[in-house]
Write a structure and sequence with these properties.
The chain is mostly helical. The protein contains eight helices and no strands. This is Intracellular septation protein A.
Length: 220
């Protein structure tokens, strides 16, 4: 009985010590989620403001906050960035800075196309040097991917590259020929609906085709 009593304070102390860490984890998750939503929300609202320079400042801030906030000290976060990361971030930083300097609505409208270009560079580079981007994501939940799953993740990465090409080209078309409100609606909402549809389609294909096929191969 006395041993049980002695363990109870220790357990309570461990739980109390773990609580702040859990709160910090949730805090970082919330911050990261809000920053991911900040970009499309900003583009969706941009048509209401006749202030490209202000939007450019916000784009620059969001870009760097996404890479620094929630990942520990800024210096540690920046040290994790590869040369490719710096290339993409540099491209978007120069674009947002150009919007601030020129106050150009056209440059602002072309910014989503540059985001697609940056994503194409990031995903496409992993197809050259490996592992593919989708394989990296998949290994976060399952480090021991079978060869069939690795091939599937590579194919999915190619699909995403094709999507970024098409979406980036269409985004440029909206920037040049659509009204401000229509451009904002597509690049701030509809494009993300397409991304969600592609994600859902990939999950359905994986569970209905890829995984059953891998199970049959394993059984054989």
């Amino acid at each position: 009985m006395s041993a049980a009593r002695s363990r109870m304070p220790a357990a309570a102390h461990e739980a109390a010590a773990a609580a702040p860490g859990t709160e910090r984890h949730w805090g970082k998750t919330v911050v990261q989620a809000l920053l991911k939503l900040a970009y499309p929300a900003l583009i969706l609202c941009a048509w209401r403001w006749d202030a490209p320079r202000l939007v450019g400042c916000m784009l620059f801030a969001i870009l760097w906050l996404q890479r620094c906030a929630g990942n520990g000290p800024v210096a540690t976060s920046l040290r994790r960035m590869s040369a490719l990361d710096w290339t993409v971030v540099g491209l978007l930083s120069c674009a947002s800075a150009a919007i601030v300097v020129t106050n150009s609505e056209l440059l602002l409208r072309l910014y989503p196309s540059l985001v697609n270009l940056g994503l194409l560079i990031a995903f496409g580079a992993t197809l050259v040097r490996g592992p593919s981007m989708i394989e990296k994501f998949a290994r976060l939940g399952n480090p021991d991917l079978p060869p069939g799953a690795v091939r599937h993740t590579r194919r999915v990465t190619r699909v995403w590259c094709a999507f970024f090409v098409l979406n980036g080209a269409f985004s440029a078309y909206t920037a040049l020929y659509w009204s401000r409100a229509s451009w904002s609606l597509y690049n701030g909402a509809l494009a993300y609906g397409l991304i969600g549809a592609l994600l859902v389609a990939e999950v359905i294909w994986r569970y209905l085709v890829v995984l059953p096929r891998a199970a049959r191969s394993g059984a054989a």
